[in-house]
Amino acid sequence: MTEPNEGEAMQRTRYAICGLSNRAIYEYALPLLGGREWSAPEEDYSGVGELVAIVDIDQTRVQRFLERTGANVPCYSPDDFDRMVVEQHPDQAIVAGPDFTHARYAVSALEHGLDVIVEKPLAHTASDARAILDAEQRSAGEVTVTHNARYEGAAGRLRDLIRSGAIGTVISVDLVEGVDTYHGASFFRRWNRRRSYSGGLAVTKGCHTIDLINWLLADAPQSVFAHGGLAFYGPESPHRPRDRAGALLGSSDEARLNPYAQRWQTGRVPEDQTLFTGEWQSLGYPAQYPEGEIRGIFDAEIDIEDHYSALIRYTGGATMAYTLCFSMPWEGHRIGITGTHGRIETESIAYRQLPESSEPTTIRVDRLFGPSEVVSVVSEPGGHDAADARIRRDLFLPSPTASGTNAIRATGFQGAIAVATGEAMARSIAERREIVVAELLDLQELPEWES
Ligand SMILES: NC(=O)c1ccc[n+]([C@@H]2O[C@H](COP(=O)([O-])OP(=O)(O)OC[C@H]3O[C@@H](n4cnc5c(N)ncnc54)[C@H](O)[C@@H]3O)[C@@H](O)[C@H]2O)c1
């Protein structure tokens, strides 16, 4: 168990979780409840933190969770947030429900002067993100966005290399990100498939990578031009099973012959993506996904893109060519960073059908007129290459640098930049023009990146 320092036993930080999501259960609720067989000893934060309330639309789901864990935590409905604060006196709100709910809870918590931890993305739209920033300005509370990609081992090495001047001034980044046919397809069955809930995948998923590159370059995107659309999922999918004459099949035949569904049933499921099989999935979502409602990846209500190619210009002059696709044979990314004095290349690719690779991720540094080097980054067990464990240490332990790294926490403003850049990708596709990121946040220009 993570012990509090001497004299701190009576001062555990009081947390209220808003949205008992799959993410909230693993990342926050279980570590805060701690001391039970489902939480590893080093992941037990019950000595320093206390879960004092859960806010969720789904009382059945929350009760099932409390029964399963034996925890006694008061549960509130969304309209009772203010009453919850008065009755339970939380110090911090953890906002971890679907993206469209983030602004509502973050703003209310800030109005009460609470600190707020918000799951990425900060919000599903730039205007909601701006509302959170405005509330933060008026509040004694502070916003932290859980951009956990910053905490992956390779991210820190890349940042150190760039900061050390190993490749000079960064000129351009080329990045291909793939989300595979198992994980990628899952978004098209869940709430994420509606723009009004997630902002689209460039926001809800792309924000990880956009923020990572912003953080590596210590700079913010100034403008975005993008192409993209829906090519793999939705009613016109080329993978939708049809009969010989091209007519649609009945729902059970369609489900049986759906190649993505076959992948879900046979593919190896990595530890951090037990989307349909994880232990806590059996709690169900009676409110969010009512029983009997069938959600398929070819449904007409899907209104988001499944692939993007964006050209992003940073305020400091660097550019990024970013391709993001949600139906790839592999999961991961290939990144190239070109500087005035050399180039860095790295990749992290997993094929779901193959056994987990034990090969370390390598970062190759080629100097234009100097020696090359290959840096190995050993991957660690745990969610998102141990990034989840590291970010929890930063969030829950008193020291601001608990992870041993400096300037790694994502601020509200940095979270807002990632949201606005993702939204700019979707807007650029729809409006066929370059989008200025600052305008989406209602700013004349972006302030300097805090690093
Ligand atoms: N950092 C990461 O790596 C990571 C990974 C996965 C998800 N996430 C983020 O975590 C959040 C949760 O995603 P998930 O897929 O785990 O969610 P989920 O679908 O598993 O759970 C959503 C929960 O929110 C509840 N809910 C719905 N509407 C609500 C409302 N208005 N008020 C309160 N509760 C409400 C549902 O009942 C359910 O308990 C999202 O913001 C997502 O983007 C982050």
From TrEMBL:
One of its GO terms (molecular function) is nucleotide binding. InterPro entries: Gfo/Idh/MocA-like_OxRdtase_C, Gfo/Idh/MocA-like_OxRdtase_N, Gfo/Idh/MocA_Oxidoreductases, NAD(P)-bd_dom_sf. Signal peptide: none annotated. Belongs to the Gfo/Idh/MocA family. Residues 159-435 form the Gfo/Idh/MocA-like oxidoreductase C-terminal domain. Pfam families: GFO_IDH_MocA (PF01408), GFO_IDH_MocA_C (PF02894). It comes from the Bacteria. It comes from Humibacter ginsenosidimutans. Residues 14-147 form the Gfo/Idh/MocA-like oxidoreductase N-terminal domain. This is Gfo/Idh/MocA family oxidoreductase.
